[in-house]
């Protein structure tokens, strides 16, 4: 798979303070990368640099083969952005707004990726079909958030930036949005870079998780790899003959296999538990803040 985002030694300085320091990572085609970190870690700054909305202080950045600071209209047509809030045109009707915005993408349509998305199909995808003829100002907060997502993907982007995309979504809408992300990556090979404070959402969506703390990458890997790097062993519990047992093992699969080989059908209520993503995230951030973590070794282990 081709590299869509390539960042090397990215640095951002405001005055005498470094917001980002030597940030290096890659994102490949069709991958979902979730960017996590506490407030002030540099997540928004990183994304704004990748989107071409902010100039960096130092480092090399390539997005879809081009430096974002030199991004052309044709390049921007390949990129979708869903912001935390959208300064919407409140008096537009929903379908009319999407039709109007879609016209800007039509000149950049290709045989491989037809642009824009047809408004009615797009409305169905984001769950707004029943509200197509309503004015934007009459939509609820959750409905406006769905419209934000529709605006971000109306041009069928090859790369999609999502900043807290499901804020204000109810559980059903959040599940539908997760299905949409999987559809974009599976069917269109869309690459997604997403920020969220919802760690459950991150675990469900991410192929890889990148954690920023203090302006540096402190971990880079799948949720499972991050958990292994922090917790090491998994906790395995089961019952046999009415008695409960608990054991820890680094190679949990091998242990469970041996357990069933010895006791077979006597095993009941088997559960294998590793540290949750929340446990892992908090541990890594605290290590970074205390200076106890070697950032280089952490990212090498978790990749």
From TrEMBL:
Keyword Electron transport: no
SUPFAM superfamilies: P-loop containing nucleoside triphosphate hydrolases
Pfam families referenced in this protein's UniProt entry, alphabetically: ABC_tran (PF00005)
Family annotation (PANTHER family): ABC TRANSPORTER ATP-BINDING PROTEIN
Membrane topology reported for the UniProt record: Peripheral membrane protein
Phylogenetic placement of the source organism: Bacteria, Bacillati, Actinomycetota, Actinomycetes, Mycobacteriales
GO molecular function (one): ATP binding
Main location (coarse class): membrane
Localization per Swiss-Prot or TrEMBL: Cell membrane
Keywords from the named record: Antibiotic resistance, ATP-binding, Nucleotide-binding, Transport
CDD domains xref list: ABC_DR_subfamily_A (cd03230)
Source organism of the structure: Nocardia jiangsuensis
Family matches, as InterPro entries: AAA+_ATPase, ABC_transporter-like_ATP-bd, ABC_transporter-like_CS, ABC_transporter_ATP-binding, P-loop_NTPase
Domain ABC transporter: 5-239
Protein name: ABC transporter ATP-binding protein
């Amino acid at each position: 798979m081709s590299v869509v985002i390539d960042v090397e030694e990215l640095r951002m300085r405001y005055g005498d303070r470094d917001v980002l320091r030597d940030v290096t990572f890659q994102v490949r085609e069709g991958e979902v990368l979730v960017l996590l970190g506490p407030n002030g870690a540099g997540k928004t700054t990183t994304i704004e640099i990748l989107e071409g909305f902010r100039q960096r202080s130092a480092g090399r950045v390539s997005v879809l083969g081009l430096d974002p600071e030199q991004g052309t209209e044709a390049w921007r047509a390949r990129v979708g952005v869903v912001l935390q809030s959208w300064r919407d045109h409140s008096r537009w009707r929903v379908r009319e707004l999407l039709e109007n915005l879609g016209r800007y993408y039509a000149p950049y349509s290709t045989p491989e990726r037809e642009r824009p998305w047809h408004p009615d199909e797009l409305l169905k995808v984001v769950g707004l079909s029943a509200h197509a003829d309503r004015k934007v100002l009459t939509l609820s907060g959750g409905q406006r958030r769905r419209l934000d997502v529709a605006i971000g993907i109306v041009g069928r982007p090859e790369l999609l930036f999502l900043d807290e995309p499901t804020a204000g979504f109810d559980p059903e809408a959040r599940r539908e949005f997760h299905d949409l992300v999987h559809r974009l990556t599976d069917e269109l090979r869309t690459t997604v870079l997403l920020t969220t404070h919802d760690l459950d959402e991150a675990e469900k969506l991410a192929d890889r998780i990148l954690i920023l703390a203090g302006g540096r990458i402190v971990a880079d890997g799948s949720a499972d790899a991050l958990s292994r790097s922090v917790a090491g062993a998994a906790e395995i519990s089961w019952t046999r003959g009415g008695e409960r047992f608990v054991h820890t093992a680094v190679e949990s699969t091998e242990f469970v296999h041996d357990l069933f080989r010895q006791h077979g059908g006597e095993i009941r209520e088997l559960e294998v538990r590793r540290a949750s993503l929340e446990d892992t995230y908090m541990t890594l951030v605290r290590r970074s803040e205390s200076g106890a973590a070697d950032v280089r070794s952490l990212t090498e282990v978790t990749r």
